[in-house]
Write a structure and sequence with these properties.
The chain has 162 residues and is of the alpha+beta class. The protein has two domains: 31 residues, no CATH class; 115 residues, Thiol Ester Dehydrase, Chain A (Roll). It has four helices and six strands. A six-stranded antiparallel beta sheet has the order 1-2-4-5-6-3, covered by helices on one side. Strand 5 and strand 6 form a beta hairpin. The radius of gyration is 18 Å and the shape is globular. The mean pLDDT is 86.
Length: 162
């Protein structure tokens, strides 16, 4: 029985069987541009507010980012924490957003297809070599979807600080 379970797991992980595409993921993704992942998640993201130390964006949840339960996939949520959080460093005039040291996400709710969400990222600490960002995803009614915290090594110093 263990061998059967191991083989099923292998098929799930190595061939993308859970996607409903019969393991054709490799075939379907051939020819996609390098660094496609961020664009795939961020397409449709709108910048709503930019000020030093704070970035607010919105996104209407598209079908491509849904999980099997028809709500925003946790991986897409984590990517939004990563990328929108990293954008805060650019709000200070940085030329680069640094390198991730630690990222965590706590999930509280999940938006559905076509639901408008808000992503707000704020600088908690920007030092000479380390920056810490807090990111919150909310539904239109203010209900928290997820909260994240992202720590980055700032290889290039930020010109101005909080």
């Amino acid at each position: 029985m263990e061998e059967e379970a191991a083989e099923k797991l292998r098929r799930y992980l190595e061939k993308g069987e859970a996607d409903g595409l019969g393991g054709r993921v490799g075939e379907l993704t051939k020819g996609l541009p390098d660094r496609f992942f961020e664009s795939f998640v961020l397409q449709g993201l709108r910048l709503r507010l930019l000020e030093p130390g704070r970035v607010v964006c919105s996104l209407k949840v598209p079908p491509r980012l849904l999980n099997a339960g028809n709500s925003l996939h946790g991986g897409a949520t984590a990517t939004l924490v990563d990328v929108v959080g990293s954008a805060v460093f650019y709000s200070f005039g940085a030329l680069a957003s640094g390198v991730s040291v630690e990222i965590n996400v706590s999930y509280f709710d999940a938006p559905s297809l076509d639901e408008e969400i808000e992503i707000e990222a704020k600088a908690l600490h920007v030092g000479q070599s380390i920056g810490v960002i807090s990111v919150e995803l909310r539904k239109k009614n203010g209900k928290i979807i997820a909260q994240g915290r992202h720590t980055k090594y700032l290889a290039v110093p930020i010109p101005s600080k909080i």
